[in-house]
Amino acid sequence: MSNGSSFFALVKSTRYFVKIPAVQALLIQFISFFFVFTLLAGIGLLFEMHNSVILVSLLQGAVAMLLSYRRQMAPWWWLMQFIFPCALVLTLALKIPPVFFLSAFIFLLGFFWTTFRTQVPFYPSSVKVWESIEKLLPHGKQIRMIDIGSGLGGVILHLAVRHPESTFIGIELAPLPWLLSALRAAFGKSSARFIRGNYIHRSLTNYDVVFAYLSPVAMSALWQKAVHEMKPGALLLSYEFLIPEAHPSITISSKSGGPNLYGWHL
Questions:
Q1: How far is residue 203 from each of residues 54, 148, 192, 222, measured CA to CA in Å?
Q2: Which CATH class is domain 127-265?
Q3: Residues 36-70: pLDDT tens digits?
Q4: Residue 244 CA from chain centroid, whole number
Q5: Contact predicate 52/28, CB 8 Å
Q6: At a CB cut-off of 8 Å and minimum separation 6, what does 230 contact?
Q7: How many CB atoms lie within 10 A of CB 16?
Q8: Domain ranges of the chain
Q9: Contact 167, 192 (CB under 8 A)
Q10: pLDDT digits 0-9 by tens, 108-121
């Protein structure tokens, strides 16, 4: 490979890396810290003021939250950006042992795994959602259904009991939820199956029903995949999040005032 090709490959890789939300969040924190530190240092020199660590952390969090909003990052990042500097100062003040953070990091990594890249956090659905999906399924007819981002496997385990003639599969990228759902199926002697992986790399051709509880940023890509791969007459379901490119043919409102369940016939 030539030096020119290597350079452009490096630039492309760098651009991709910088687009990762977690990397953007970290860069924003650095920028916010230097901005606030410089601003308060200048004010301190002019007016002979001494700035507290709490004031610096609060201002840094506020600036980071504003920059995250301007960068159109997902809403949960705004709150995380504001809390992070304050939480860091608090933990240092309390002298919490490092092993606590390591344990917490490993646990959260197991649950959220690639949330920093996919922007699809852990969203558990409720029993009422499972029952709404069940009403949409044909009774006495064999179908194949997959739950994209199956989490702890609640919906798949629920439907597998009530429709033993059908095949229900969950696919989950995060290792800990996948492991827990697989263990639940094994110990409960359920016919439900759970696969660890990214649905992007799995064909949707053989499924009659596809259910997803993802996030707004993932819906357009899901729709494009469904249009190209799902067979005519198949049903795509999404809890809470709409597909910008297509109006739903099914809308089931929650009686308790929660999010809606949407459906699209392919």
A1: 51, 12, 18, 12
A2: alpha beta
A3: 888 877 776 666 666 677 788 888 889 988 988 88
A4: 18
A5: no
A6: 204, 205, 207, 210, 236, 266
A7: 10
A8: 3-96, 127-265
A9: no
A10: 555 555 555 545 55
